[in-house]
Specification:
The complex is a heterodimer of chains A (560) and B (370).
Chain A: H1 7-10, H2 12-40, H3 47-54, H4 56-89, H5 95-101, H6 110-121, H7 126-134, H8 146-171, H9 174-182, H10 187-215, H11 219-224, H12 237-246, H13 252-279, H14 299-327, E1 329-331, E2 335-338, H15 341-349, H16 351-381, H17 387-393, H18 396-399, H19 402-416, H20 426-451, H21 454-462, H22 467-496, H23 512-521, H24 525-550
Antiparallel strand pairs in A: 1-2
Chain B: E1 7-16, E2 19-29, E3 34-38, H1 45-53, E4 60-65, E5 68-69, E6 80-83, H2 95-105, H3 113-123, H4 139-151, E7 157-161, H5 169-186, E8 189-194, H6 197-203, E9 206-211, E10 214-219, H7 221-226, H8 231-236, E11 241-250, E12 260-265, E13 268-273, E14 283-289, E15 294-297, E16 304-313, E17 317-324, E18 334-340, E19 353-358, E20 364-367
Parallel strand pairs in B: 3-8, 3-9, 6-7, 7-8
Antiparallel strand pairs in B: 1-2, 1-4, 4-5, 9-10, 11-12, 11-14, 12-13, 14-20, 15-19, 16-17, 16-19, 17-18
The chains are: A mainly alpha (560), B alpha+beta (370).
Amino acid sequence: MNTRGSLILREPTVVVTVIFMITVIALFVLLPAASMLLESVRGFTLHRYVDFFASRYFRHTLYNTLLVSGLATLFSMTAGFLFAYTVTRTDVPLRRLFSTIVLVPMLLPAFLIAFALILLLGRNGLLNQALEIVNPGGVRFNIYSPWGVILAQTLSFFPMSFLLFAAALSAIDPRLEDAAQDLGGDYWYTLRRVTLPLMAPAAFGSALLLFMFHASAFGAPALLGGRGLFFGNATMLAPEAIIQTLGARSDWGMGATLAVVLVVPSIALFLAGEYYLKRRSYVTVTGAPTAFRPRPVPSGVKWTLFALCLLISLFIAAVVAVVAVGAFTQTWGINYSFTDRHLRTALTASRRSINNSIFLAGSGGFAAALFGTLSAWVFARKSFRGSRVVDALSMIPYALPGMVMGLGFAIAFSGNIPGLIMSGTGLIIFLNHVVRRMPYGIRSAAGAIRQIDPSIEEAAADLGGRPVYSFVRVTMPLLKDAFFASFVFGFINMMTDITAVIFLVSPRWRLLSVDVFNAIEATRYGTASALSLIMILSTLIVLAVARVLGGVRLGGKEAG
Amino acid sequence: MNSSQAVTVRDLTKRYGNATAVDSVSFTAEAGKLTTLLGPSGCGKTTTLRAVGGFITVDRGTIMIGDRAVDSLPPYRRPTRTVFQSYALFPHMSVRENVAFGLKATGTPRREIPGRVAEALQLVGLQEFAHRQSGQLSGGQQQRVAFARALVTRPEVLLLDEPLSNLDAKLRVQMRLEIRRLQQEVGITTIYVTHDQEEALSLSDTVIVMNEGRIEQQGTPWEIYEHPANRFVADFIGTSNIIPAEIVSSGTDTGKTGDDLTISCLGSTFDISRDRVPAEITGRCGLVIRPEHIVLGAIGEGSLTARVLARDYRGSAADYRLAIEDGTDVPGTELIAEVSSPTGRQLLEIGEQVSLRLDTRRVSVVPAEE
């Protein structure tokens, strides 16, 4: 084709997608982020930052954030690696079961896990009651402590490190370990000198990502850390920012300052983590498929791994069980007789929230999956000047903690900019969802597109298929699974999100997750359990439907 | 039947950044014939094919199919069909749906489709596999589906992009004959891209040898093999010995018949037919001789003596790497000689001495090394 028309004539889809993308990024990512930054220096002053670092209390929130995140990262990495190693590299019994159970926490927001821990290990928790029977007046678990927060965070995020480690371990050619043993290395030597070094880049990358997710934790520290953590009576940055803005002081400037203090290192860590995970320098690529081959490990190792995995799996099962049982229990810790009153209360008092959540998560998940898939296809198949820049920009919301996106939206669209007033509407929640989940849709689809031989789409054109016909008949069916995957994760994340939407809900647009959180905070545990059960069931139904329609598997979660 | 059309490519140029993939390439693929674009990877053959199919925009040049310029047409409006190197079967469709795709996409009347699909599958011998998913087929079967899918819409031109490169050696020879049969049966203008010179010689009506974005030589397989136009073609097609030589006189000077030239090579002179020497070559040149045209014999029989450096016995033939020894002014020159179907006595050992003679009737001449 010699005709060199303008880009818009030759590739209208590219132009439309790029304009759309830039508009979305400018309006719903950069503008909220900038508003937040400006709010923190409102009145052209840096005094809030000075106050932050001058205040012992605020410094303590920072120290708490660093220490709690560091320890939670360490524990979630360890648990994730144990599970991944057990599932991909050993002959430990019940491996398959473990690999399914480990993914259950991905369906549960961190605050829900914290809630389950209250039911298990709180003052009237089951385990403490059991201890009271065994040893009256003796030692008790104290879940309202930094260790409680770390436990909730670990349970909530170790599945993510499991997935990263499992992917890295599966990518290692098992023949490398065979070779090490063939050359005379025993089990421990092979593990120490071959397996673990090969995992180093993945471990480093996931450590950075996990630290960032833990650092922006809100739900667990808000519910379990209210009486102070390691340092003083301070909590962590994200809950403190919410206390500052939504609490009695209503100091949005200080909230924004805390958010900025949180977000700057977060983005740096996120980018560094992504960079290392992408490099994955030790992934060995060979022609032959390296199917999973269970291999015998020393029996001491085998049964230790089995015991650890079983213990954690049972704990996860208990987390789900107490919430389910709690929904039908009169008064947790006092009267365990059956009742359906919590469920009835939940369905009447929160009916509107349930409908709102399902409607917004459904429509938002669909929009995010659709735009994500289309954008990924345009980025992958159409080369144009600056495509890499737009692609990189579209990933920003993925790196921003939910709290920052929520606070940014609340500041940007509350009337500070004429014509862009959306506070109190469903639209602001919808847009927030879509923008935050779209990067996931783009990634999911980009992975699928990489698997599709470009000649397949060329063949469709070659055989006479016009662009739209070819796209509908060939490209779309091939991207169906990726589409459903991003829809499901969009839906689940939207149903369970709390940190962003807590800034955006209004009396008219209440949401299920916020109702659950409020019920937990108000210690109405029966109602909280019933609402949680509804939340879990609705995500399970969507997951099951998507599994039938599109072969969706579990695999992603964001900071809660 | 197809209305096959000639493909005329004129002055085709395609650049990627600073690299010129195709540099002013012009050729005609004759109607109903199979034309091969042959060359090493990166020579521009696939780029040329993709330009004909409409998958890339070119920087300069025109492409005509019959008397129609197709340059501004997107792939789906061109009367060309491609068999891709990876076959590019639609993984979410059955064999039948794959073959029917082109008919549906171009709005063929619905009631015609089943008959046309069945006919195309019959042509490639896959009637029984119509309901299979494309993933359930062997490589050879996938290849046949790709052919049926391309031919079912009765294109004017068939484009084949290294279609045999993903098959194992035995199947490749079998499919090579199959492709030739299909092409001749349908009588369709075909452009075939390959880097395998044996495939090109076996299949083609016309071979176009490409290198670094340019055409080195165009001709029948016999012409390409017997009369390579230059060092590149001599080297790329088959195995060649290229020996420094000199045209010492045109035959007329020495009173011989006007059709011969005298050439000095490896210390002796001989006459060769003038039609084996391109007109522009005078003086120093390279003499091309194929291994099978070097005749080995017992010491004293031939004009040169050589020692065996290495042996590559392949059953049907044996190749020897030889070093010219003495009795010439060019000791040390190495040659490859082939003895077909050697008897036990003929099988030479490494280090053994042998005499050799060049079959000067079958040599050709290329320009001297720069």
